[in-house]
Amino acid sequence: MPNSIVTDANAPLILVADDVPANVELLQVQLHTLGFRTVTANDGPSSLQACLEHMPDVCILDVSMPAGDLGVEDRSTGFEVCRRIKRDPRTERIPVIFVTALNETGDRVRAIEAGGDDFLTKPHNRLILGARVRSLLRLKLAMDALEGSVRKLRELEKLKDDLMKMIVHDLKSPLSAVLATLEMLRDGDFGALADPQARAVMDAESRAHDLLDLISDLLELARLEDAEVQLELKDTSVKQIVQDLLAEWDLRLRQSGTTLNVEIVPGVPEFRADPTLLKRVFSNLLQNSIVHAPSPVKVRLAARAEGDTVLFAVQDDGPGIAHEYLELIFRKFETLKSTPSSLSPRLRNSGLGLAFCKLAVEAHGGRIWAVSKQGEGSTFYVQVPLNLRQNSIRA
Asked: Is the separation of the CB atoms in 27 and 60 below 8 Å?
């Protein structure tokens, strides 16, 4: 029966695949009277070809058809066609209805396993067929709309990220000039400073360095997400990382009243890593421990060998983190508000510190996680392999 019976070019297009001409004609008549256009096929290969060529809104398949070169028995052709439709990204969202004389439970199970969306047994009711087709069309329309929204959101996210990278990169130059001027002030290049002035300049310089670290985090985070970072691998010792951290954090720890205890189990071997990147990971974790604590905290930095990995722990006695936030805290730009009891997750205000830690540790082929309970402090664990293989690096 000619497809011209339905003249509306915008009417949904239905693929009817059956090797019995009388069955095809019946389905065409029924679908045309329901307002649908049709295209037909009479075996497995032609069904797949028609699906790719016409991109129908719904496929109606018989199960038993000539298989051609599909490599299955004729009585399973429809199942194989459905599997291939659902495997192909171009056609995977096209709904498939099996209309067949088969009526065993096993046949229905095979139809579901093949990816079929519905199953009708011959002889079928025209109104039920129409209702099933319309239902699947509504579902497909909703899925297409959802995919379009997701695609637009991804495009907007990329645009936002690109804009952020551009702005952040441009911030480094004026900030570097500010830091240079503050350093000159501190060193007395513009005249001697009284003690209150010197302390104010040092405080401003410290905050400017915090801002520079934040900018570095943003840029490094973007590079890690874009898989552009090549780790500068070196033979790294736990002792050297800890010494560098202590030298960098000595003043901040004393200013904040934080007590830092270091526990390195003897015998931890050297391991392959990017020490600069790892040091920034532990700096962020220390920052997390002290920034929002209501009072000076005690921090324990521990390290030990565990199998073929090195396991670090940064533990504090601060306010702790609620269990439901333990995964959330590693997401980019995720900041959590303080709870009425002030037992809030202690995140850097930017929501970048822990996101950076996660990507940096994973770039080393390792993992990071937190164990915590509100009111009882938190422990962040960092586990990295002793022998990092080059193919485990995101590059």
From this structure: yes
SS (H, E, C) 332-391: CCCCCCCCCCCCCCCCCCCCCHHHHHHHHHHHCCCEEEEEECCCCCEEEEEEEECCCCHH
Q: Do the beta carbons of residue 351 and residue 261 sit within 8 Å?
A: no
28: left (phi over 0), alpha (psi -120 to 50) or beta: alpha
In whole angstroms, give the CA distance from residue 293 to residue 319.
Answer: 7
- Residue pLDDT, tens place only, 78-112: 999 999 999 999 999 999 999 887 777 888 888 88
State pLDDT tens for residues 14-36: 999 999 999 999 999 999 988 89
CATH 3.30.565.10 fits domain 234-392 = yes
| CATH superfamily placement of domain 3-124 | Response regulator (3.40.50.2300)
The model scores a pTM over 0.90: no
